[in-house]
Amino acid sequence: MTMKSQILHYPRMTKILMSRREWKRLAIRQTDYNIFFSTSNLMGVAWVLKSNESAKTVEGALERAGATKLGAFKVDCTAYRPTLDVAGQIKNFYVLHHSAYPDSSSIFGELSTDVTNVSPRATSDLGFDLILQKFSNGLLSDNALSFELNGFEYALRDFRIRFGVALMGRSSSKGVIVEFEFAACNIVKECIGLLSELVNSFFPEQSKAMPLPLIRQKKELENYYSSDSLEQYLRIFQEMRSLSN
């Protein structure tokens, strides 16, 4: 039985969770139509925060809670700015990668602070990074403002918890970032209570400030994408950068 025929075998299911790089079926609400689309940029709902604890302390807390280490984890962010020749035509933007989605690049313009607005963004395959190299006459990568996060990924039942130390400019440590992902759901409204409870159990203070992408979606039946997580990382990176100025 093929992947698609397996999906059609369950016509009354609202959604079927499968491999992130396979296919997902959604039944459009109040209609009889089914659609199929690639889920390479879909993920479980995630809450990303900056921790005041050390990476070793976070790791110890996870292991005491019974979490199992899965392996290494990485996020990187490169800032691009236009050269003087094209400064009026191109704005600054950022390209981010997440090790859970090794084939994808997420691109962001300047982030909006308005909860009702979605920041300019796009998701592409890694070919986009190769294209950028061809525009070196008009675009400059600003390594001093770039970030790299290296750490580990743990599993705790249906949750994936990732943490690492953020380096600015590849050398200056700016703190620890932790990501809590509820892998069994990709709609914020349906799992935000459970996700909030887990975050609160580890980081009571940080749980009081919900990330902007989650606030936007907590009342809507919308799919959560990898770009929603990477927006949270980018906001934290920019906060770290502003504190260092």
From TrEMBL:
<keyword id="KW-0804">Transcription</keyword>
<keyword id="KW-0805">Transcription regulation</keyword>
<dbReference type="Pfam" id="PF08612">
    <property type="entry name" value="Med20"/>
</dbReference>
<dbReference type="GO" id="GO:0003713">
    <property type="term" value="F:transcription coactivator activity"/>
</dbReference>
<comment type="function">
    <text>Component of the Mediator complex, a coactivator involved in the regulated transcription of nearly all RNA polymerase II-dependent genes. Mediator functions as a bridge to convey information from gene-specific regulatory proteins to the basal RNA polymerase II transcription machinery. Mediator is recruited to promoters by direct interactions with regulatory proteins and serves as a scaffold for the assembly of a functional preinitiation complex with RNA polymerase II and the general transcription factors.</text>
</comment>
<keyword id="KW-0010">Activator</keyword>
<comment type="similarity">
    <text>Belongs to the Mediator complex subunit 20 family.</text>
</comment>
<comment type="subunit">
    <text>Component of the Mediator complex.</text>
</comment>
<dbReference type="GO" id="GO:0016592">
    <property type="term" value="C:mediator complex"/>
</dbReference>
<keyword id="KW-0539">Nucleus</keyword>
<dbReference type="InterPro" id="IPR013921">
    <property type="entry name" value="Mediator_Med20"/>
</dbReference>
<protein>
    <recommendedName>
        <fullName>Mediator of RNA polymerase II transcription subunit 20</fullName>
    </recommendedName>
</protein>
<dbReference type="GO" id="GO:0006357">
    <property type="term" value="P:regulation of transcription by RNA polymerase II"/>
</dbReference>
